[in-house]
């Protein structure tokens, strides 16, 4: 199936899902129209399966990134607290030297 055939099949599938024309005006895969050729239907199903797999992978990567960002945030908060403690100690030492 060529690229234009796939595009046409997708458009027909989209019209079908949107409740497009029926009866004699309907194209393949539309309500009241002839059924979609098996090869085109199989291609569309494969595209959907591939898209679902890709979305699952993307979702997993988003979860991983979210976890990493949470850990990094905790790590930065710990370093910020240490920095604050060090600045307080420096201030205490400086105040003790000026008295």
UniProtKB/TrEMBL annotation:
Residues 1-17, 79-92 have a biased composition (Basic and acidic residues). Residues 1-43, 79-99 are annotated as: Disordered. This is Uncharacterized protein.
